[in-house]
Structures are given as structure tokens and as C-alpha cells.
Design brief:
The structure holds two protein chains of two kinds. By secondary structure, chain A is mainly α. Chain A has helices at residues 12-36, 51-76; one strand at 49-50. In chain A, α1 packs antiparallel against α2 (51-76). The chains are: A mainly alpha, B mainly alpha.
């Protein structure tokens, strides 16, 4: 259902905020992909998977997720409702 | 070695310290003096009860057995928190607006405040949590045993069961003292949460300290540690894709559905913004907890004698290295992990048990009207008993199972049980079509499959169900073997159970939802949950019933206490604009009161109590539709207003244009009056002057004739002017008599060109025509139309300023209409004058006038209107261009 009264275009600041929300939504999707990725690569030859290599990969991905979430968090703390002066100068 | 007695003393001192923290915080919070308590840091740390003793001790054991697979348990929650914008944000907001007290309350409240659902979720949660609590008791007991066995001189070696019993009693006491001190309408326990945060710091510091000791103390830094890992039995590991993906999903589901996580995440949340901080800080906490697990495992395998329980490496490794202080710290870390989990889990479960099982029972046993006195005492009592009962259950499980199974296995079984709530929860907050029946079906199916295929078999072959049943299925039906349902064999039993229970759960939930019709309260709640970010909470679904405010006050005093209830009623009365302490029992007020009460006793109980007072006059589907209609009407009305205001704007614009035109016309009329007087005066003056000369007589006949000629010509000019004016006046008053006939357009244009050639005959015009297109016969008034052409062509001859003037006449036929364009190559008419040229007496410039009075185009327009056509200025043709449009066949008006 279309909600009346919502502006079609936004000012720069609320626009950036919405894109950050998009990024926050996509972050777990990318995270899940990267964390499931080790299932796809198989160790060469007979020896098992290298513990050190896999561990480094997982910790780096993990730290990356934390860092990106840290970057996104402050701008998302404002209330979910549109700012009262959104759409104005 | 640390003597056992000292260990007990240390534990007691530590617990006493926590006690003190909780006590001080509660007291200061009462005075509202501790702003930092409401900081996101405390919130994040309190979330760390996800890391129980299972993490603290079990992760190392898990790593020894399965390599990095232990990390899945923390990667799932990481994804959930990093993606907080999807689910957690909505859960927390719903928890706040609906004053949710527990996960059972959330589910029950969403599905029409159904107490049956509350009971189902409570039972599932208690059954799933019991082994988990047993696990905590076991880990504390084991850690005590480790110290006791290494310290033979420290005193009597304690009995394992006795230790567990004392730990259980101590924990229950602590929880009762701080978890049920007050019946807050927000169900928050600031003191306990702060104590939990302190414990979170202790366990993190302890694990990191052991890790640092291992990496930099035993090994020579990270590089050496990696070399050691490569040299150890753990240098390679086996990733089972099914378990890897399944466990990440399972832990993500568990962090949402575990009652204790829900308690700290949603119920104890003070400020929604804390969630944003926790979105990265909690994953960071988990990251740090996992960082040193593998090094500790490798060092333990390397340095400890074979056969040492890897689940206790965190403790035994420092002990074996003679690091008593570090061992003590590790012990306290494990102790913290276990105690914090038991405290929060038992508070959460006790709230659920008392709100969904004890209170409804009590209400139905003793009808509310007959009861007087404070219900709060009963609620608190039931919670205390429930806490004791839950811890006792855990202890009983510990005794029965003998504490033999590996820690991690128990934890995962518990996770799968808790995850059964996931479909009903996510469906409830994202899908308005989810119904109570669907939720009941899903939960019962999922829980049934879980118990049958995982929980019961976990007691071991011949534990609860026989080994034969596991191997062959009930009555020999292979399809129903608990660990190979529907003939799917060879999967890891845990993943098998998780897969089937959740798939069947979700299927039953979905099917039940789409096949049934929700009740009115359910629909109200569904809308309130799914659209929680869209603003207004619908007013609880009460119609104006028989309840008086006084009855409601009596009821709420029993739950909120005298002062609290009165304050709430007074505030509501003020909001209604009433002076007294009692507000009107409007549906809105009753809804607000119900939410307030549900913060104490849960949605279902609050709903039932209010229903008893109000007389069961809950809302019907028709009422809902009426409300929806009202909303629709208001929206339609506002849309109409909007349309009206747009129309008004349009009208105002038209009026403004008309006004501008009128003003200009008035100015024009003034200027024409002076113009016309001038026009009339010039011939009059010469007539007068020459007639005076004639009157004097006595002049040669030739001069006489010439003067008479001048007088005659001037009189003709005057007559022509007056004729024009008269003509126009007749046309304007629609008194025209048209003589219709079939005429050739080409003839008319020919005639017009010949007639117009008399105007400024000294100029020669190049005329471009297209004879083919002019070969048209039209029914119209030939004389009048020709007059229009003459006017246009003469105008072009008069005003075209080009040195080599050209005239183009283009004829086109569109449908039943003919368009004749008369275009010259002059300067054209400026845009601001285009609207005026067809007005009477309009003249663009004074100096180019050639005897006209500015009536030509005005007459043309009137003629064309009379002929059923129009004349317009055609801009953008490279000169002055007029388009004459008229019907091909003009029918005489009767």
C-alpha cells in the first residue's frame, strides 16, 4: 500500500542515511557468504585442511565484519523515523 | 597449589562482591544517580551471557575434537548482531511498545494473547534449558574437582554431588534475592544486569589472560604459536559442510530464541540506541573469546598428560605450569560464566513460568472478583518458587545424567530445542498472516520432532528409548527411526534433527496459518507487531464496556501497588484533560492499562484480568472493520481536501491571469480613447480647416475642387473608421447574419491577395503558395472569410519590415477542419504582446500605423468565432504567422 505524504526525493543527509541502512542490511548477507566460503575450497592432495590458514581467513573476515559494523553503527543510531526537517533545506 | 578451603572462600568473596555490586546499583538506581549504568557498554557486556561455561571450558574441548568448528557457535550470533537492522531492531522496538516480559510473552502476545502458546513456549524453553543449567553445574563441579584433586592437603575432598548441590542452592538464593526483589512494570533488573556485566569482564579477562600466557609465555609469540599449531595433531582439521553451515544457522537462531538471550537483549534493554553499539561490540567480545581457544587447545595437547579432559584445559594448563594465580583467575572466569548463565536463565524462565502457568492457574482457581489483597506478593512468590524449581530441575538432570556427556553436545541439543521458537517468532514479526493455530502447530510439531529425534536419544542407547528403537524404528518402521527420519540416513544426528524439526515446524506453521482465520485480537496484535515502525499502536482492542475506572484502579493496585497504580491513573486522567484522579475508561485508556499490566504479569494474564473486569467485552471483527473504515474515510477525506486545494490553486491562478489581462485591457482602453479621439480629430480638423477655406470663397475652381476632394476623402476615412467600429460591435453582440455557400478556398485566397495588394501598393511581395493543397471546397461565409484573409495579408504588407518581403500561405486539412497559415518573414510579435494583439485597439507600435485603428485582428477574431473557427498567433515560424482554423463544412445554426 502506498503511504501518502512521503517525499519522493531526499536531501543529501537523509539520502546518505538510507544508503547506510542499505549497507547495514547487506552486511550480514556478505558476512554469511564469506563465512560459508571455506566449504567450497577443498584442500589439495591427501592432507587435511590447514588449521592455521583457515583460522587466519576466518578471523580476518570476522574482524572485517566488526570493523564495518563499527563504521555503520553511529549513523544508524538516530531514530528510524524520518527527520522532521527531512526534505527541507 | 590452591587449597580447596581457600578456593571456597574465594568463591564466597567473589559472590559477595557481586552481591554488593548488585545491591549498590539497585540502591543508586532508585535514586537515579548512575547515568553510566544505562550505557551501551553495560548492555553489550550483559549480552555476554551467551558465552556460558560451555564457551569458557567447552570451546577448547570442542576445538580439540573438531578444529575450527567451535567457532560456528559464535559466528551465527555475529551475523545476527551485524545484521541487527533486520530482526533485533524490530524485536527491541516491539518489546518496548508491547512491554514484553519474556519470549513466551512475545509469542503469546503476538498471537492474540493466547495463553496456550505462552504455556507451550514456556515448556519448550524449560525442557531445553534444563540440560544447559545442568551443564553449568557440571562445569563448576568439575572445576572444583580439578582443584581438589591437585590439592590433597587442603582439606577433605568434597563429594561431587554435594558441590553441585551447594552451588545450585547458592545460585538459586542469589537469583531469588536479586531477580525478584521487585515487580517492576518493565521487568528490568538493573542490579543483576550490572553484576552480569562484571562477570562478563572477569571471564573475558580470564580467558584472554590464559591465552596470552600460552602464546607469549609458553610459546614465543604468534609466529612460534603458528609453528606449534602446524606441528600439533591439530595442524589440519576436517570441515563438514553440513555441520559448518547448519551450526552457524543454529547458533544464529539460538541467540534470538534462547530465553536468557531474549531477557538481556530485549527485556533488559534500556535504550534502543544501545543496540547499535552492541552490533559491533558484542561480535568483538565473541571474537576475543575465540581468539585464544586453539592455542590453548594445542598447548594443552602438547604439555598435559594424554587422557586429560580437554574440556578443562583452560584450568588444568595453568595449574600444571604452576601458575596458581592464573589458574585462580581462570577458575573465577569459569565460575562467572556458569553463574551468570544460571542466574539470567532462571530469571527469564521463572518469569515465563509464573506469568504463563502459575498466574493463569491461580486466576482460574480463584475468580478475580473474589480476591482481595495484593497480587504482587503472589506473583513474586511464584517467581521465587519457579527459580528454585528450575535450578532444582537442572540439578536433578545433572544427577540423573551423571555428568558424563561432553559439554558441547549438551549445549547444541539445547540450542536446537530453543530454535523451535524461531518460525513462530520471525513469522510473527514479519508476516501478518501468521495465526495462533499455525504457531501452535509449528511449535508442537518442531518440539515433538526435536524430543523424538535428538533429546531422547541423547540420553544414550537404552537411556530413555531403547537401542532397538533407534536402530529399527518404532514397530520396525524404518522410516520413523529417530536418527534417520523418512529414510534419510548418514547425516550427522544433530543436523538431521535440526533440519527435520525446523522444516516440519515451519511447514506446519505455514500451513496452519494459511488455512485458519485469525481472531480479532490476533489481527490487532499482528498489525501492531508487523507494523511496529509505522507509528501508532492500535488501542488494545477494547470497546467501551461495563468497567468503571474505579474497578480498574482496584485491579491495577493489586498488580502495580497502590502508589504506582494511582500515579498511572492520574497521568492518564491528565492526558484526557480531566482534573480528578480517575480517567474515563475509554478503549484507549484500557489498552494502555493492559500494556502496563502486561509488563508485570505478561500479556495473556493481563488480558484475562482486564477481560474479567471489563466484562469480556473485547473487540469483534466488525469493530475492527469499523476502525479500518474510519481510517479509510479519513484518508479519503484528506485526499479530497488535497484535490480541492489543488483546484483552488488552479482557479486562483486563472483568476490572477484574468485580472492581469483586465488591467492591461483597461490601460489599453484608456490609450485607445485618446487614440480614437486623435483618429477622429485628425480628419475632423482637416475637414474643418478646408471647409473654412471654402467658406471664404474667392478661389480658383481647381483649388476649390482639390479642397473639396480632401474633405471628401477625410469624410470617407472617418466613415470607414466608424464602419469598423460598428462592424465589430455587431460581431461581438452575435448579431451576424451568415450567408453560407460552397466556395473554393483557392478563389478566396486569390481574391484576398488582389484586394490586399491595394495596401501599400509600392511594396512587392514574393508570395509562396501550394495550389494543390488549396484545391478545397468549403462551406462557409465566403465574404467574411475573405475579409479575414485580406486583413491578415494587408497586415503583413503593412508591418513586414524585411527588405525583401515574402509571404507564405499554407493550407492543411485535419479531419473536418481546415487550417490556413499566413506567414511573413518579418520580425514576428514579441511574446508578451502575443496575448494582446487580438484585443480591440491593440497596436504594437505607434509609428508603424498606416491608417488602421487597431481593429483589424479583433474583427478577424470575432469573424472566425462566428464561423465556428479560430485565429491564433503561431510562434516560432521565422516571422509573423497567423493560423486560421475553420470547419470544412459549417452548418447554419438553426
Amino acid at each position: 500500500m502506498k503511504r501518502p505524504g512521503l517525499p519522493l526525493f531526499l536531501q543529501r543527509r537523509p539520502y546518505r542515511r538510507r544508503r547506510k541502512i542499505d549497507a547495514a542490511r547487506l552486511l550480514p548477507v556478505f558476512g554469511a557468504f564469506l563465512l560459508l566460503l571455506p566449504m567450497l575450497w577443498a584442500p589439495a592432495g591427501d592432507e587435511g585442511r590447514g588449521t592455521v590458514g583457515d583460522g587466519l581467513y576466518l578471523f580476518v573476515v570476522w574482524a572485517g565484519l566488526i570493523a564495518v559494523a563499527r563504521l555503520l553503527a553511529p549513523s544508524l543510531t538516530a531514530d528510524g523515523q524520518p527527520d522532521p526537517d527531512e526534505g527541507k533545506g | 597449589m590452591v587449597p580447596f578451603n581457600i578456593l571456597v572462600v574465594v568463591c564466597l568473596v567473589y559472590v559477595g562482591l557481586l552481591f554488593l555490586v548488585a545491591f549498590l546499583v539497585e540502591r543508586r538506581a532508585h535514586a537515579r544517580a548512575l547515568p553510566w549504568l544505562r550505557s551501551p557498554l553495560i548492555y553489550t557486556l550483559s549480552l555476554s551471557i551467551f558465552c556460558t561455561a560451555w564457551t569458557f571450558y567447552g570451546a577448547v574441548g570442542y576445538a580439540v575434537r573438531s578444529g575450527w568448528e567451535f567457532m560456528t557457535i559464535y559466528l551465527g550470533p555475529t551475523l545476527v548482531f551485524v545484521g541487527w537492522w533486520w530482526v533485533l531492531r524490530k524485536l527491541v522496538r516491539i518489546g518496548k511498545t508491547q512491554r514484553v516480559t519474556s519470549i513466551a510473552d512475545l509469542i503469546s502476545s503476538r498471537y492474540g494473547k493466547s495463553n496456550m502458546l505462552g504455556v507451550i513456549v514456556t515448556v519448550i524453553s524449560v525442557v531445553a534449558a534444563t540440560p544447559y543449567i545442568a551443564l553449568q553445574l557440571q562445569s563448576v563441579t568439575l572445576s572444583f574437582a580439578v582443584f581438589a584433586s591437585t590439592a590433597a592437603d587442603g582439606g577433605p575432598v568434597p563429594d561431587k554431588a554435594a558441590t553441585a548441590l551447594w552451588v545450585a542452592v547458592g545460585l538459586a538464593l542469589f537469583t531469588v534475592l536479586f531477580g525478584t526483589r521487585n515487580l517492576d512494570s518493565n521487568e528490568r533488573h538493573l542490579g543483576v544486569v550490572t553484576a552480569i556485566a562484571v562477570e562478563a569482564v572477569v571471564k573475558l579477562v580470564a580467558l584472554v589472560a590464559v591465552g596470552v600466557f600460552v602464546v607469549w609465555g609458553l610459546a614465543g609469540g604468534p609466529a612460534d604459536m603458528m609453528a606449534k599449531i602446524n606441528a600439533s595433531p591439530l595442524s589440519s582439521w576436517d570441515l563438514q559442510p553440513g555441520r559448518w553451515a547448519g551450526l552457524i544457522f543454529l547458533s544464529a537462531a539460538a541467540v534470538l530464541c534462547l530465553p536468557r538471550m531474549f531477557q538481556v537483549m530485549v527485556v533488559e534493554n534500556v535504550d534502543e540506541r544501545h543496540l547499535a553499539t552492541a552490533s559491533w561490540a558484542f561480535p568483538l567480545y565473541l571474537f576475543l573469546m575465540c581468539l585464544f581457544v586453539l592455542p590453548i587447545a594445542v598447548a594443552g595437547l602438547d604439555l598435559l598428560p594424554p587422557g586429560t579432559n580437554p574440556d578443562l584445559f583452560v584450568l588444568t594448563l595453568p595449574l600444571a605450569q604452576g601458575q596458581d594465580g592464573l589458574a585462580m583467575l581462570a577458575f573465577l572466569g569459569g565460575f562467572s560464566s556458569a553463574t551468570s548463565m544460571v542466574i539470567v536463565a532462571s530469571i527469564a524462565l521463572a518469569t515465563m513460568v509464573s506469568n504463563h502457568i502459575v498466574m493463569p492457574l491461580w486466576l482460574s482457581l480463584r475468580p478475580a472478583r473474589a480476591v482481595s489483597g495484593d497480587v504482587r506478593r503472589i506473583v513474586l512468590l511464584s517467581r521465587r518458587l519457579a527459580i528454585a524449581g528450575i535450578v532444582a530441575l537442572g540439578y536433578a538432570y545433572f544427577q540423573l545424567s551423571g555428568g558424563s556427556a561432553a559439554l558441547a553436545a549438551i549445549g547444541l541439543i539445547s540450542f536446537v530445542g530453543a530454535a523451535q521458537i524461531l518460525p513462530a517468532m520471525l513469522g510473527g514479526i514479519f508476516w501478518r498472516g501468521a495465526t495462533r493455530v499455525g504457531a501452535v502447530c509449528g511449535l508442537l510439531t518442531g518440539a515433538g520432532v526435536w524430543v523424538y529425534s535428538l533429546y531422547l536419544p541423547s540420553f544414550g542407547p537404552d537411556g530413555v528409548i531403547s537401542a532397538r528403537l533407534i536402530a529399527e524404528g518404532p514397530w520396525g518402521i524404518g522410516w520413523l527411526r529417530p536418527q534417520a527420519l523418512f529414510g534419510v540416513e548418514g547425516i550427522d544426528p544433530l543436523i538431521h534433527a535440526m533440519f527435520w524439526s525446523l522444516v516440519l515446524n515451519a511447514t506446519a506453521f505455514f500451513a496452519g496459518s494459511i488455512l485458519t482465520f485469525p481472531g480479532p485480537v490476533e489481527r490487532v496484535q499482528g498489525a501492531a507487531f508487523v507494523n511496529v515502525f509505522d507509528g501508532e499502536v492500535p488501542a488494545g482492542g477494547w470497546v467501551r464496556g461495563a468497567a468503571t475506572a474505579e474497578n480498574l484502579l482496584i485491579l491495577s493496585q493489586r498488580i502495580l501497588g497502590g502508589d504506582g497504580a494511582l500515579a498511572f491513573f492520574e497521568a492518564e486522567a491528565r492526558m484526557q484533560g480531566k482534573a480528578g484522579p480517575l480517567p474515563d475508561p475509554t478503549p484507549g485508556f484500557v489498552g494502555a492499562l493492559e500494556r502496563r499490566l502486561s509488563g508485570s504479569v505478561g500479556a495473556a494474564t493481563a488480558h484475562a484480568m482486564i477481560a474479567q473486569t471489563v466484562g469480556g467485552a473485547a473487540v469483534s471483527v466488525e469493530d475492527l472493520m469499523a476502525v479500518a473504515n474510519e481510517t479509510a474515510q479519513i484518508m479519503e477525506y484528506s485526499a479530497r481536501l488535497e484535490a480541492q486545494s489543488e483546484e483552488l490553486t488552479r482557479t486562483a491562478r486563472q483568476l490572477q491571469l484574468a485580472n492581469e489581462k483586465l488591467t492591461r485591457l483597461s490601460v489599453q482602453k484608456d490609450s485607445f480613447l485618446s487614440q480614437i479621439s486623435h483618429e477622429l480629430r485628425t480628419p475632423m480638423t482637416s475637414i474643418r480647416a478646408f471647409s473654412e477655406i471654402l467658406m471664404e470663397g474667392d478661389m480658383p475652381p481647381a483649388m476649390l475642387r482639390r479642397h473639396a476632394t480632401i474633405i471628401h476623402e477625410e469624410a470617407i476615412r472617418l466613415t470607414r473608421l466608424l464602419d469598423d467600429l460598428l462592424n465589430l460591435s455587431v460581431l461581438e453582440n452575435a448579431g451576424v447574419q451568415l450567408t453560407l455557400g460552397l466556395v473554393s478556398l483557392q478563389d478566396m485566397i486569390d481574391r484576398a491577395l488582389v484586394a490586399a495588394a491595394q495596401t501599400r501598393p509600392e511594396r512587392s511581395f514574393a508570395v509562396h503558395r501550394d495550389p494543390a493543397s488549396e484545391a478545397l471546397y468549403v462551406t462557409t461565409d465566403a465574404d467574411r472569410l475573405t475579409q479575414v484573409f485580406i486583413n491578415l495579408i494587408s497586415n503583413a504588407r503593412k508591418y513586414c519590415a524585411a527588405p525583401e518581403p515574402e509571404l507564405r500561405i499554407a493550407v492543411r486539412q485535419r479531419g473536418g477542419r481546415v487550417m490556413v497559415d499566413v506567414i511573413d518573414n518579418g520580425r514576428g510579435i514579441p511574446e508578451d504582446s502575443q496575448a494582446l494583439i487580438f484585443e480591440k485597439f491593440a497596436r504594437l507600435t505607434d509609428e508603424t500605423r498606416a491608417g488602421g485603428a487597431g481593429l483589424g485582428l479583433a474583427i478577424c477574431r470575432e469573424v472566425m468565432t462566428a464561423l465556428g473557427g479560430s485565429i491564433t498567433y503561431l510562434p516560432g515560424q521565422g516571422g509573423t504567422a497567423f493560423r486560421v482554423t475553420f470547419p470544412l463544412r459549417l452548418r447554419a445554426v438553426a
